[in-house]
Amino acid sequence: MVRPEHASGAVSVSDFIRETVGRMGVRADVEERSLPDLSIPYVNIVTDEARLLIGARAQNLLALEYLVKRLIERRGPEGAERFFLDVNGYRLHHLEELKAEVKQMARKVRLYRTELALKPMSPFERRIVHIALAEYPDIMTESTGEGASRRVVIKPYP
């Protein structure tokens, strides 16, 4: 569990997020657990005010995750550990849809023996794709492109 230094001593990332969101005037509970697909802690904010925290295309949520990570890093080197921040399971649902979509595309690659390029994705999403398709022995994945244009290409194994 991530434990940033805090004025009152060491606190968990969940407590730190609960405090940060509370200062924003949002009432919320924070759950922290591990998930099989993620090698980092999953921290989920449960609130009735999810729209405010998520924003359009999850921009507010991604910005909140970035800010919380920077604040934790400033409190000490042990706070530099990674975690996955979510609100009401929004991003987790998106990842499940992504995995289902890429598995469907892998079946097409297998059937037609042709490459398929996915839309540009974040490094985290690309990693999820590589992990999701690793179980297919006749399929391989490769990240191509640079910067914001980086994407995964699904290919039949030669």
Describe this protein's structure.
The structure is a single chain. By secondary structure, the protein is of the alpha+beta class. The protein folds into 2 domains: 13-88, GMP Synthetase, Chain A, domain 3 (2-Layer Sandwich), CATH 3.30.300; 93-156, R3H-like domain (Ribosomal Protein S8, Chain: A, domain 1, 2-Layer Sandwich), CATH 3.30.1370. 42% of the residues lie in helices and 19% in strands. It contains 5 helices and 6 strands; from the N terminus they run H-E-E-H-H-E-H-E-H-E-E. The chain has helices spanning 13-23, 50-54, 59-74, 90-112, 123-133, and strands at residues 28-33, 42-47, 84-87, 116-117, 139-144, 151-156. The strands form 2 sheets. Strands 1-2-3 form a 3-stranded mixed β-sheet, with helices on both faces. The protein has a 3-stranded antiparallel β-sheet with strand order 4-6-5. A hairpin with an 8-residue loop joins strand 1 and strand 2 (42-47). The longest helix is centred in the middle third of the chain and has 23 residues, at 90-112. The radius of gyration is 18 Å and the shape is elongated. The protein starts with 12 loop residues before the first helix and ends with a strand. Residues 1-8 have low confidence and may be disordered. This is R3H domain-containing protein. GO terms for molecular function: RNA binding. Pfam families: R3H. Residues 92-158 form the R3H domain. It comes from Candidatus Sungbacteria bacterium RIFCSPLOWO2_01_FULL_59_16.
Key words describing this protein structure:
158 residues; alpha+beta; GMP Synthetase, Chain A, domain 3; Ribosomal Protein S8, Chain: A, domain 1; 2 domains; three-stranded mixed sheet; three-stranded antiparallel sheet; 5 helices; 6 strands; 42% helix; elongated; disordered N terminus
